[in-house]
Amino acid sequence: AREEGWGNMVIFNEGMLERAMNLMHIEMDLYRALDMGEFFLTYQPIVNIGCRTITGFEALVRWRHPERGTVSPAEFIPVSEGTGQILSIGKWVLYEACRDMARWRSEFPEFEDMVVNVNLSARQLSQPGMVDQVADVLRETGLPARCLRLEVTETMLMGNPEFANMALRRLKEIGVKLCIDDFGTGYSSLSYLQAFPIDTLKVDRSFVSKMSREPGNFKIVQAVVALAHSLGLEVVAEGVEEEEQRIMLSELRCEGGQGFLFSRPVRAEDVPALVFGGTAP
Ligand code: C2E
Ligand code: CA
Ligand code: CA
Ligand code: CA
């Protein structure tokens, strides 16, 4: 019937309606999710690629939805970015991750030099009170600044590079570490890359996962590692799933690795066991 009314032009179909409704429900449900305690963090180890010892963890948020089960951040983070809800979710993630790491450090000497990585969204980085928020969370949780690494993407930085650079410099001043996430997927200018006060570059999974099969991807990873090192940055390869990739990366002198080969993201209570039990698959 709809098609008759619009001639042969279908401008709105069932699939689109369903997707729009889905987004609307996510948005509405997100409003209570924080208060209801529906978010939790998982942690994925970052290891020394040569010897596999754990050097830190990336905090990855999950949403335990009362009806849908566990919802992936790939689904709700973009929605929350659009509505601004990411600001309160992101603040919760930051606090929770710092508190967990501070607790592990106080309980186990093995965590002394561990670093926790927290993802920032574009909205958070451009929020006026961001640097104070980070400083407050560090003070309240007692986590030393050097044990926190904030992950930002190229795209976030290139929108307004001058502003981003200023925000990063202020974060750097309070002593936190900074990392560019998903490197290679966005567009970024090398001259800016060199100007940002970054410590670490994370090579995106899309290059790592294909590097053992496609020579072109191997060359990209090789070039990114060389570029990072020439700028004095450490490199972490994400999405390492195969031993062959680990060996290639370690031959390229990539410092760190993260991926299912070492461990999937685990719940906070399982983190200490990963450190004590090693990361043998
Ligand atoms: P990301 O920051 O690139 O995080 C890495 C993603 O890759 C995680 O997905 C992780 O589970 C997955 N992964 C790790 N190793 C492997 C592997 O070997 N193979 C494969 N196939 N996947 C692997 P996850 O947890 O679903 O997170 C998806 C994205 O959601 C993250 O991508 C990040 O952009 C965003 N995200 C997650 N937590 C937060 C958060 O607290 N704040 C913000 N702003 N974004 C977050
Ligand atoms: Ca990340
Ligand atoms: Ca990433
Ligand atoms: Ca990625």
Notes on the protein architecture:
The chain is α/β, with parallel strands linked by helices and 281 residues long. 48% of the residues lie in helices and 20% in strands. The protein contains 13 helices and 10 strands. It has helices at 2-5, 14-33, 73-83, 86-107, 122-125, 130-141, 154-159, 161-173, 190-195, 205-210, 215-230, 243-251, 271-277; strands spanning 39-48, 54-65, 69-71, 115-119, 148-153, 177-183, 200-203, 234-238, 256-258, 266-267. Strands 1-2-4-5-6-7-8-9 form an 8-stranded mixed β-barrel, surrounded by 4 helices. Helix 2 (14-33) crosses helix 3 and helix 4 packs parallel to helix 6. The longest helix is centred in the middle third of the chain and has 22 residues, at 86-107. The radius of gyration is 20 Å and the shape is globular. The N and C termini lie far apart (57 Å). The mean pLDDT is 92. The chain binds ligand C2E and calcium ion (3 copies). Ligand C2E binds at residues 44, 60-61, 72-74, 77, 90, 93, 119, 121, 181-182, 205, 238-241, 258-260, 265.
Give the secondary structure arrangement, pairings included.
Layout: H1 2-5, H2 14-33, E1 39-48, E2 54-65, E3 69-71, H3 73-83, H4 86-107, E4 115-119, H5 122-125, H6 130-141, E5 148-153, H7 154-159, H8 161-173, E6 177-183, H9 190-195, E7 200-203, H10 205-210, H11 215-230, E8 234-238, H12 243-251, E9 256-258, E10 266-267, H13 271-277
Parallel strand pairs: 2-4, 4-5, 5-6, 6-7, 7-8, 8-9
Antiparallel strand pairs: 1-2, 1-9, 1-10, 2-3
Helix pairs in contact: 2-3, 4-6
The chain binds ligand C2E and calcium ion (3 copies).
